[in-house]
Write a structure and sequence with these properties.
The chain is about 40% helix and about 20% strand. By secondary structure, it is an alpha/beta fold.
Length: about 230
């Protein structure tokens, strides 16, 4: 019998797959939501890529409801997203649109899932970016989208947000995650300053269990130095 039920939005990405694996090993029931299925998850909900924002939300909310059969979930974790560079002189609207779809659409749909299916006291975790606390001239679309996720998180952590009672809405703000793709594109970087995916998955697990929780609405920067990660709560 599964101990908890977890939804991972972006369950096929590097961090999402690490979260799916972590919670499966902890004997949890895990649903993955992504453009493609994750074979390790108990349930897969594939997002129709070319559908509108509203159509994607309706599809995902309906499919998860069918899978849950009246049950509630203990955590909704949204680690969907991506990265694109570019300033105002280089395809700004095109890159901003892509970033909005990947980060903001997924985060708001995750919030709708939490409002509908999260148990009281449950966890809704979104993914922002520490860089988006300031100007991001070399990646404007990315910074805009992540700043919107930060604003969404603060709103969800406030009174009358529509989330279940005593739930925790929080956004992690990584600097650089230690993924295969990042190592491929930045092979000469100092990996000791990169945050391990297992650390993030374990952090979500602790928060889900009510351990060492920040205040709801918090933005939590993950700052790694010499292979040690510090949490800086905004």
């Amino acid at each position: 019998m599964a101990t908890s039920r977890i939804v991972v939005y972006g369950g096929r990405g590097a961090l999402g797959a690490a979260c799916v694996n972590h919670f499966k090993q902890a004997n949890c029931w895990v649903a993955s939501i992504d453009l493609n299925p994750n074979e390790n998850a108990d349930v897969n909900i594939t997002v129709p890529k070319d559908a509108s924002w509203l159509q994607q939300e309706e599809h995902v909310v309906k499919e998860l409801g069918t899978a849950l059969q009246g049950q509630k979930v203990n955590a909704v974790i949204c680690v969907a997203g991506g990265w694109a560079g570019g300033n105002a002189a280089k395809e700004l609207s095109k890159q901003a649109d892509l970033m909005w779809r990947q980060s903001v659409w997924s985060s708001t749909i995750a919030a709708s899932l939490a409002a509908t299916y999260l148990t009281p006291g449950g966890l809704l975790a979104l993914t922002g970016a520490k860089a988006a606390l300031e100007g991001t001239p070399g990646m404007i679309g990315y910074g805009m989208a992540k700043a919107a996720v930060h604003q969404l998180t603060k709103s969800l952590g406030s009174k009358d947000s529509g989330l279940p009672e005593n739930s925790l809405a929080v956004a992690i703000m990584p600097v650089t995650l230690d993924t295969e793709m990042n190592r491929k594109w930045m092979p000469k970087a100092d990996f000791g300053t990169w945050t391990p995916l297992t650390f993030v998955a374990q952090l979500f697990d602790k928060w889900m269990k009510g351990e060492e929780r920040p205040a709801s609405g918090s933005l939590v920067a993950l700052v790694t130095k010499d292979n040690v990660t510090e949490l800086i709560v905004q």
